Each structure stands twice: as structure tokens, then as C-alpha cells.
Amino acid sequence: MKSTRHKFSASNKLARLAWIICSLFLFKPFTLRVFRKWRVLVLKIFGAKVSWNSLVHSSVKIWAPWNLEVEDYACLGPKVDCYNQGRITVKKNATVSQKSSLCASGHDYTSKYHSLYLAPIVIEQKAWVAAEAFIGPGVTIGEGAVVGARAAVFKNVAPWAVVGGNPASFIKNREIKD
User: Fold this and answer.
1) C-alpha count within 13 angstroms, C-beta hemisphere, residue 2
2) CATH architecture of residue range(s) 10-173
């Protein structure tokens, strides 16, 4: 699941600088919900694949919009940290709640250089990552799964499972009641 060593090009670094500056003036100040589509437009300009029907709060911290995909009716809540050196995908009707962290990269602790590796995160349809949870590199949160508040997830979560704790462990299967 880990990719090979990775270094960022000069063009990537320049794009990051442009994003940081533009996000300060064109993304973050537009906090009202009526500016939801404006924020989507700014993300799209920087290469994100974001649905016009998604909700990305202005306080979300995004490392690289070009590595972000947010599908219809998905939500990145207030103060979510998308540390997306690697790709992050949030699928249809999924929610990432406030102050959660999505980290799609890490360092190989077995390498004497602690080489950077990129590993994508996928939050499948109808999944819910609750407040202040941490999702580590290479993790897929299965369809309809729930990650409990403040959980730390380092392994894939099965569809329709409820997990919690640090490290996250299975609690029960999720059942939808009418």
C-alpha cells in the first residue's frame, strides 16, 4: 500500500504557495453558507474534483486541492485538516465531522532517511467520520461505516461497521432504523 519515495517538484511547491496565498484571500474569508459554491469554484480552479452539491467549510485546511475529490452531498466539516500530499476521496453522502484529520502521507520509519510515502485515503459513500477522528495513510472507510469521535484509524474499516478508540477497533455493525 505504501508508495515509493517521494519528493515534491519546484512546480508543486509554487502551486502550494499560490494556493496558500489565494486560500487566505479567496477561500477562508467566505464563511457564510451562501458562499458554499464560491468555495467550490476556488477549489476547482486549483484542480480539486469537487461537486457543486458538496459542502466544504471555509475553515477546512487543505494541503493540495489538486489531490482532493469530494462527491455529491459529501461534507468536510469545520476545521477538518486534509493533509493530502496523497489523494483524498470523500464519496457521495459521506461526512467528515469537525476537527477531524485526514493524513494521506507518512514517513518510512524503516528507512534511514525516513522517506516520505503517499497513500490515498477513501471515505466511501454514506460513511461518517465523527469529530476529532484521525484517519491515517492508505485507509479506506467502508460504505456506511462510522468512525467514533476521537478515534485513530490505521487500518481499513469494513462497510457498515462502527469503530472507535485508539487504535480504532470494531464496536458493532451499523443498522439503519426508519
Assistant:
1) 13
2) 3 Solenoid (2.160)
